[in-house]
Sequence to fold (401 residues):
Amino acid sequence: MRCDTVWRNARLATMAQDSDGIGAVNDGLIAAAQGRIIYAGEARHAHAFDAAQTVDCEGRWITPGLIDCHTHIIHGGDRAQEFAMRLAGASYEEIARAGGGILSTMRATRSASLDALVASALPRVDALMAEGVTTLEIKSGYGLTLDDECRMLRAARALGHARALRIVTSFLGAHALPPEYAGDADGYIEAVCGTMIPALAQEHLADAVDVFCEGIGFTPAQTERVFAAAKQHGLPVKIHAEQLSSLHGSALAARHGAISADHLEHADTHDVVAMAASGTVAVLLPGAYYFMRETQLPPVALLRQHGVPIALATDCNPGTSPLTSLLLVLNMGATLFRLTVEECLLGVTRNAAAALGLSQSIGTLEAGKACDLAIWDINDPAELVYRIGFNPLHMRIKDGR
Ligand code: DI6
Ligand code: FE
Fold:
């Protein structure tokens, strides 16, 4: 059978749904044509592929290209000074009163051009790509006006043209209350629902809609209004929920068929049962837990018990997770949250694809999926979770190239 490329003499971690564990294949082969996998499996079962190019992987491991399914990687400025203030003992309230927090990033983002937003994100994006990331989710949420949110999402789309990277965008206008609406959260939510979502949907700038449902964010009732507007425009929903407190935003999101609920440190049985019933993916963000020195662990045992798929992501953002290493997130998932090696690896491949509603096209090494591969200089996939600050990537392939 004719094909473009064959990768032979490889060990595959297919992450396939119907396989046990990571779906390991010891003497494996992958064949691709027009950017898609046409075969991934035992070399001895491979049909005779007549490939234009054959790559000898010399026994290296191949995983699906890694997926970072939750980032705020586009933003103006940084919050390093705020970090220094916190180390000197300043509280959040003091920092917020001094103009810190999300609103300081909002000001820096509003004053940045589209090109400047792209340029400042590129080093962070390149760091993730260097570790084998082939798909990156990027949220808006630092503009908080229609024009500024559009510019953020256009910058996100532009990154997908500037790099060989699959970009998925989420509109997070309901991230914080902008100063123009001080004291009028309901008025701002009306603008999010009545003006921003219709305009963004019209321009296909957002692939999903996200909400920060939290005491310092938006209420469950306001969240529900945003979900209704998203659904009206055919957009999937996801949520930042139970990060700092329990508002049962994750149960609410599950009832609305959310593709993911993220953070979840304060989620309980009620939330997890609702997520299991709706197939909502639990996206855990150990970088924010670590950087904010949280102490409340997400209910991993409950998620396992109810069969809720677990994904992991960097939550790359300037305030609570200035982290651009998905490999470090793998180690944190195991070391901080006690996930198994297999759960961690599934968390940045198959389950991360599910958190983006992309299970049909990426996240495993199976025929029909995009040929997104990460080829590693390791003897055991466990090394990807075990090592701290070491990058064993040999080669990153996106769409077969
Ligand atoms: N949760 C978070 O941890 C970030 N946003 C959110 O909804 C914080 C974003 C920031 O501090 O800039
Ligand atoms: Fe986040």
About this structure: The chain has a mean pLDDT of 97. Residues 185-202 form the longest helix (18 residues).
